[in-house]
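Training component of the fellowship. As part of building independent skills, the fellow (R.M.) carried out the full modelling exercise for a liganded target. The chosen ligand was NAP. The inputs are recorded below so that the supervisory panel can assess the work.
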Amino acid sequence: MTEAAYLPHPPSRRRLGPNGPAIGPVAWGMWRFAGATLDEATRLVEAALDAGVTLFDTADIYGVDGPGWGSAEALLGEVFAASPGLRDRLVLATKGGIVMGVPYDSSPAYLASAIDASLQRLGVERVDLWQVHRPDVLAHPQELARTLGNAVRSGKVGAVGVSNFTPGQIEALVHFLDVPLASSQPEFSALHLDPLEDGQFDQAMRHGLAVLAWSPLGGGRIARPETQREIALAAALDTVAEAHGVSRAVAAMSWIAAHPAHPIPIGGSQNPARIAELADVAKVRWTRTQWYAVLTAARGAPLP
Ligand code: NAP
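Fellow's submitted model of the complex:
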């Protein structure tokens, strides 16, 4: 196969926002992190660093269905405290704006307090990326833009991003922001194709946003397919995985990264051996035919 037959590699490094830190083609997420011991947690963070992961994604709410609100951030804070210098080796991203029982609050006072609480739990003076976890439709985008701009100017936040926003909500926010929007974090995998089809990826390419793809294995369903559609998708991924000598999970994440927006899959495994595989994601090459074969299997219907 000639080089020209393959889709381009995702960039090995890109900036998070115009002047932000360099980030690589894969990220690692801590939704399922709370509840580990300090030793286990440290091993997981080191496994991700060893695999070349730069961006580490957490949120204030992670752990709420286990040890409690804030427990994933607090555990990462313990890891930082026990391993001096570790925090500076990673690009640290967190989120806020979900409030139990409300469910969303992007008012200026609440978001300012949420950022302070995250910094305290993490034991850091600043996070590199702070994201609005879910849109609060009762917050005017002009007011949210002012809040996010103030967070950056306070020095507590290196850059700002959003998660689970529609393209229209992102457009309205970008219109009012006086600091760059660095990222969006939609759910995206071969089992959840919305951002490919609703204009979000096109918008990200137009505005230069880093796209962080959450649940890149469909929360594990791609590794353990059950339905007919999932089994057909697994077979299409396995063809490429076998040709490259990688796991299906690696093939699934590389399929995401091969889109021209070069979405950054946030691997969610809490198993050190599976985290180590993140190093292989950017090595897999896709032909157009293979990429569209996975899309067709994922849709469960031929493309028009
Ligand atoms: P995922 O990578 O799609 O799924 C991870 C799950 O799949 C884990 O339970 C993992 O188990 C399992 N898995 C992975 N490889 C496997 C294999 N080969 N065989 C069997 N099981 C396998 O990602 P996710 O955890 O759902 O989400 C990833 C990250 O996205 C989160 O940590 C968070 O940072 C972010 N996220 C954001 C939002 C949002 O609203 N912004 C929502 C959800 C998630 P093991 O741990 O045993 O490997």
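The panel noted the following from the submitted structure. The mean pLDDT is 97. The domain at 9-224+249-284 is CATH 3.20.20.100 (TIM Barrel).
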